[in-house]
Write a structure and sequence with these properties.
With about 190 residues, the protein is mainly β. It is built from 4 helices and 12 strands. The protein has a 7-stranded antiparallel sheet. It comes from Methanoculleus formosensis.
Length: about 190
């Protein structure tokens, strides 16, 4: 099938919607939405988020070296988007969004109490990449709301109800039904 070039862009389907929680030097909780991120190592379990130097979260990450990642459900699209359009320099984003900053048990960083999944992370290293710095954090623990767990005790994506970001159209999208079982669906093609 013929393909048309759209040029070099920050295009990946889907982008996760990750809320990075940090404390400022004044101890005030802050959060920003990041779509440039994802899992980057299995051992140690690690996640990477890329942040521009002009962001308050950048300064907080450099200073504190610890952070959380909260994963919002579709109930909180408006609030998650707000975390990306307001600055923590002059705004208490948690108060303005009507959300609860909860101090992490393991790291000196807040997470969003209303969001169903939280990763508690300690900074391992940074990588300078153009206008962004990638912050790679070791995941020390993952906390999941009991209401978002399945009968098997594992996180259930249908109960978590995360959403994704389309950077080309600048829109948020929900997820649909299960398509197939991973590490199984392709077995019939294996010879």
């Amino acid at each position: 099938m013929a393909k048309q070039s759209v040029g070099p862009r920050t295009l990946l389907y889907p982008h996760p919607v990750l809320i990075v929680g940090t404390y400022g030097t004044d101890g005030r909780p802050d959060a920003m939405v990041a779509a440039w991120g994802g899992i980057c190592s299995s051992r140690p379990p690690s996640v990477a988020v890329s942040v521009q130097k002009v962001r308050q979260t950048y300064a907080n990450l450099v200073e504190q070296r610890e952070f959380t990642i909260s994963i919002p459900s579709t109930d909180y699209v408006k609030e998650a988007d707000y975390f990306g359009i307001a600055s923590g320099r002059d705004t208490d984003k948690f108060a303005a969004a009507g959300l609860t900053p909860v101090k992490s048990d393991l790291v000196n960083a807040p997470y969003v109490g209303e969001f169903p999944v939280v990763l508690e992370c300690r900074l391992l290293q940074t990588v300078e990449i153009g206008m962004h710095t990638q912050f790679i954090g070791e995941i020390l623990d993952v906390k999941v709301d009991e209401s978002a767990l399945g009968a098997d005790g594992k996180p259930d994506i249908e109960k978590i109800r995360p959403f994704a970001y389309d950077s080309m159209r600048q829109e948020y999208y929900g997820f649909g039904k299960v398509l197939a079982k991973a590490f199984s669906a392709g077995k019939e093609l294996k010879k």
